[in-house]
Amino acid sequence: MKVLIATDKPFAKIAVDGIRTEIEAAGFTLALLEKYTEKQQLLDAVSDANAIIIRSDIIDAEVIAAAKDLKIIVRAGAGYDNVDLDAATKAEVCVMNTPGQNSNAVAELVFGLLVYAARNFYNGTSGTELKGKKLGIHAFGNVGRNVARIAKGFGMELYAFDAYCKDEDIKAEGVIPVKSVSALYQTCDVVSIHIPATAETKKSINADLLAKMPKGAIVANTARKEVINEEELVQFMEANPTFKYVTDILPDNHATMTEKFGGRYFATPKKMGAQTAEANINAGIAAAKQIVNFLKNGQQIFRVN
Ligand code: 3PG
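# 3-phosphoglyceric acid complex -> structure
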């Protein structure tokens, strides 16, 4: 059995070594395609793979069709909006993710972004502190829970909205559940976004919602660019000169945002949330183990299609 790691954004070497150990211990072989620049390289690499480990790499119907011996795709991470699930299902390919494995790394980056924004991007002027501010956690999954844990150390007041999480589960983490998305934005000085990109959430962070936030608000997005209505964000920021937006996912209108909102907008050039050795090891080795268990024992834990 041949397992391919196909990562445009490579794992740390220590994680690749750990994945190799798992795969070879099972008697399988490992192939590596990193930092590819053309889709054709991916199409060629998947042609004889039985399993692939990916990150945000786009696995569309064309890639699945080119992978004629493919049995399983594991997205080493949480969000799997980069995989065409229908095409995978039609081709009888199992798709899994590795939930929770990189969530602390993403949550730590949230605070890197928030401190940077609250201190005016280190421009020498007086900023603000996070202590005592109301933090809204928009979706209380694995990343949201880690954000809550860290925010307690900063002395923030914590609120969360999650349509799929029971109030008592949110309260159990010392966080106040709110009843709606709009109540969250209305209540909080700072919002950290952790919703997936789905048909329902795409462009859902719009001017109407942002207008509910108090003056001087900050929104941090370490989730997906697609959840933001980018046109309305520009209009909103033009009309609200104290609002700051920090993100780990380069918006499509990054050039416009930079030109118009220098000093209150920042985007990492490449998504960095999960880019730590620890997260790479956790997610990469979990992916390798899931592949071995699936191919050897038919175990389907974390299957998403
Ligand atoms: C995820 O969905 O797990 C995160 O967005 C991390 O994505 P990445 O592996 O491409 O850095």
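# post-check
The longest strand covers residues 2-7.
Residues 9, 55-56, 77-79, 102, 271, 273-275 surround 3-phosphoglyceric acid (CB under 6 Å).
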